[in-house]
Write a structure and sequence with these properties.
heterodimer, A: about 260 residues, alpha+beta, Alpha-Beta Plaits, 8 helices, elongated, B: about 325 residues, mainly alpha, Formate dehydrogenase/DMSO reductase fold, 11 helices, 3 strands, about 65% helix
């Protein structure tokens, strides 16, 4: 692929991506249902279901929320983990496609499948270490997240609605959408400043989607920070309160 | 990985077909060098090629059952620059074409030399030229088929040159065993020649497949749950995978068989591909029987199918890290 590169050799083309904040995700699956609702009836649909109300329901999804338990009781933590195509910058699924149905758009870096060319050989799904691709058992072609390519450029939609359905649906704003090649974009800043990371970096696929880690805000206070050393009342000999090993006025009298 | 029968039949059947052709051509080469008696062009080489093409065609037909849209299969020829699968799709019919032309040349008796090499001792005729081209294509086909698996770097069980050698030796051995069976059936007096080569190739396959089994047993996987979700903790347990009835991901990448069955297939393939055919082929040296080499081939083919099943079952795809608990 022929990309535009700047003087430092860094690719300057647009690379759209999702940033998913694991610190904020509550695992409500709103992104899953919203994705399914938009895409099953749209350009990338249908996303066929089998036995939706039966014993072994199964079907095509572009986005799934998984849940992991970290640690051992009682020191456990639940992490909800939304998982969809990561739109890798070096997508291993694309070169293996024998028909050219799988491709990465140079314009915005979205990895897509041309359903009319796909022969349903499933080889691309073998070549994705993340399991992001799922074959549609009805239409017999490979399907995956399109980053709502049929929404984000639709000028008939209001500007703030030109975002993927999952991002629109997230009630906690755990999902951000933008161009990670633009250093000043919200997503780039978030990746830099909030510790955004990639999944399975060991395979060199350079996923465009990033995840933000769980974080806990802690503050460390020392005793001398609790008592104000230069309190002016001290200078005048009037103690603002008794030393910490003595009873306070409230404790000694009932007024 | 899920062992799909379409792919098991495809890879094993074309392996046998390729091996059988290589055996036929090796026989012709030995005959040319006057190390073996020349065989009848029509009854031996032409019929042998029909048999080889039959296996290749059966494999090709099996492969279509793997596709969601077989009517678009022709499109798979377009991405040969990057895709080993595309390369295989191109080289398979080319191999079949050259084997067909090789058989046709024998059938039609096109023995008039085009030119003569090595002071008149090596007449190059149509059969020899087509045979050389078909041999070249056959090896390319072996490489393409194996590289489909060996090029997936994160399926670490497959990502190794041993995979390519395994496909060549396992396919070659079964093809030479079939050649021994075929020459016994055709009473071509080549049983011991093909039997010897079949045993040599089977032993070569034992060496490379054994090495890959040994390698896979002590393989350290690069990916783990920590890198998969990016959380640094030694103890991570999946509680839900985003579906309750399974998904494509749980069907395509797991064999869903108990460990006991997997071990059974393992021992079955080790037994039926290696010692049993070798013993049967060895016995056919002493006991002249049409059935011994045939039985050897049937046993070895069953072993080869079991080997291919195990080949898929032993491969652990990193995506499985995300699909450990349904809940």
């Amino acid at each position: 692929m022929d990309f535009l590169t700047d003087a430092a050799g860094i690719k300057t083309m647009t690379q759209l991506a999702l940033i998913i904040d694991l610190n904020v995700c509550v695992g409500c699956h709103a992104c899953v249902t919203s994705c399914k609702e938009w895409n099953t009836s749209g350009w990338a649909g249908p996303m066929t279901d089998f036995n939706p109300y039966g014993e072994d329901p199964t079907g095509t999804f572009f986005n799934r929320v998984q849940t992991f338990e970290i640690g051992e009781y009682p020191k456990t933590e639940t992490v909800h983990f939304p998982k969809s195509c990561l739109h890798c910058e070096e997508p291993p699924c694309v070169p293996v496609c024998p028909t050219g149905a799988s491709y990465k758009r140079e314009k915005d870096g979205i990895v897509l499948v041309d359903y009319d060319k796909c022969i349903g050989c499933k080889y691309c799904s073998w070549a994705c270490p993340y399991g992001a691709r799922e074959i549609d058992e009805k239409q017999k072609v490979m399907k995956k997240c399109t980053l709502c390519v049929d929404r984000i450029y639709d000028e008939s939609l209001a500007k703030n609605e030109r975002r993927p359905a999952c991002v629109m649906a997230c009630p906690t704003s755990a999902r951000l959408f933008g161009d990670i090649h633009d250093p000043d974009s919200e997503v780039s800043e978030t990746i830099r400043e909030s510790g955004g990371y990639q999944l399975m970096p060991e395979w060199g696929s350079k996923p465009a989607n990033h995840y933000l880690p769980r974080r806990k805000n802690r503050i460390t206070l020392h005793r001398d920070e609790l008592e104000r050393a230069d309190n002016p009342l001290k200078k005048e000999g009037i103690l603002p309160e008794p030393p910490s090993d003595q009873k306070t006025l409230d404790e000694t009298t009932s007024w | 990985m899920h062992p799909a029968f379409s792919v098991i039949f495809l890879t094993t059947l074309i392996g046998v077909g390729q091996g059988l052709f290589l055996a036929l051509f090796t026989g012709q080469f030995y005959a040319l060098a006057k190390l073996l008696p020349a065989q009848d062009s029509q009854a031996f080489y032409a019929v042998g090629c029909v048999l080889s093409l039959g296996f290749l065609l059966a494999g090709l037909v099996a492969s279509f059952f793997h596709l969601g849209h077989p009517e678009r299969a022709w499109r798979a020829m377009t991405q040969w620059r990057t895709s080993w699968l595309s390369r295989e799709v191109i080289i398979l019919p080319i191999t079949m074409l050259f084997i067909f032309l090789y058989g046709l040349a024998h059938f039609m008796g096109w023995n008039q030399p085009w030119f003569v090499l090595a002071d008149g001792s090596l007449p190059v005729d149509t059969t020899l030229v087509m045979g050389m081209l078909a041999t070249f294509a056959t090896f390319l086909l072996f490489i393409c088929t194996a590289m489909i698996y060996a090029s997936l770097k994160f399926v670490q069980e497959w990502y190794n040159p041993l995979t390519v050698f395994n496909f060549i030796f396992l396919g070659g051995a079964s093809g030479f065993t079939l050649a021994a069976a075929f020459s016994a059936y055709a009473q071509a007096n080549m049983v011991s020649f093909y039997g010897m080569w079949a045993v040599i190739l089977t032993l070569a396959a034992l060496l490379t497949r054994g090495a890959s089994l040994w390698r896979n047993r002590r393989l350290k996987h690069k990916s783990n749950l920590q890198t998969a979700i990016g959380i640094r903790h030694n103890k991570i347990q999946q509680k839900a995978q985003g579906s309750m009835g399974g998904s494509f991901n749980t069907r395509e990448f797991f064999h869903h068989k108990p460990e006991k069955i997997v071990r059974m297939v393992y021992w079955f393939f080790l037994l039926f591909f290696f010692p049993i055919p070798i013993a049967l082929l060895g016995a056919s040296y002493g006991i002249e029987s049409v059935y011994l080499p045939m039985l050897a081939f049937v046993m070895q083919y069953l072993g080869l199918m079991a080997e291919r099943w195990y080949f898929f079952a032993e491969a652990r795809h990193p995506q499985n890290l995300y699909y450990q608990a349904i809940a």
